[in-house]
Amino acid sequence: MEGLPNEVLTLVLVYVPGSDLVRNCILVCQKWRDIINSSHLWQSKCEKTGKFIPNITPPPHNDDYKRLYFFNPYGRNLLKNFCAKVGCSKWRIKEDGGNGFGVEDIPDNVKPLSEFVHVEEPDVKVWTTSYYWCVKSQEVDLKAEGVEEWIMDHVKPHIGVSEWYAARHDSGCAYEMTVRLLDWMGHQIDSHVFLKQFQRGEGGDWHQVSHTFKDYQPGVRYVDFRHGGKDMEFLPGHHGVKFTLSSVRLKFTPSHTASLSNNQRTHKVSED
Asked: CATH number for the domain including 103?
């Protein structure tokens, strides 16, 4: 291995899992360390594993391909525990009225979710609500998730938010989803509010609510996702609205990818 040219050794290391590279392989020798710390290796790994969108690359003077590889913020749901697998973990409870939030493995008194959406995630569960408002929220720190500030300020990818919700057959209920775009101080830049009420007998089907933020002002650093609901007939237990598969994703259009190279050059000149 010591006799291999750097180019060949890089091709070999690209096939090693990233966690092994940074924990073990980097300790082998200085040559391996330099290769593992190079942008070229991590760019190759991003391309090989599909964590790379053409023309969406970090500024040339930044070594952010490693962050892109591990965080992959441009190809995944940025919300944690988005389908109730671990209860309300990762969410902040704002209101827990009545009997509080519940979690159902098999949604009660509604049709199977699989009849309305293809679910790739195994073991999807749903949150249920009670006879007073049950509301929780999660704040996505875009920088902590690996999103570059210059991309949010200059490229402004679309921010798509969505969720699936349903009402029971035997109870009227209310549902709400509020999403806010915040700057680094927590000031609101943009927002979207969705409200829906069901009368008794109107439930049973699943519905998707979605919204895409476009052309927002520079400075977006956080996405505050809030959802909740209640049973409007004050029945004990969890007769309120159900919801799951919450999502916050960054989306790039052809116009975004076409402008990225120019934005990268501008960013580099301004930094220099």
From this structure: 2.60.120.260
H or E stretch covering 234: none
Residue 198 and residue 172 in contact, taking contact as beta carbons nearer than 8 Å: yes
Structural domain harbouring 201:
92-251
**What gap in Å lies between CA 80 and CA 86, rounded to an integer?**
10
Could you give the 3-state DSSP secondary structure of residue 86?
coil
Q: What is the pLDDT of residues 95-139, one digit of tens each?
A: 999 999 999 999 999 999 999 998 877 789 999 999 999 999 999
State how far the Cα of 37 lies from the Cα of 10, in Å rounded to an integer.
11
State how many domains the chain has: 2
Residues across the chain: 272
CATH of the domain at 45: 1.20.1280.50
How far is the C-alpha of 20 from the C-alpha of 15, rounded, in Å? 11
Q: Are 163 and 215 part of one and the same domain?
A: yes
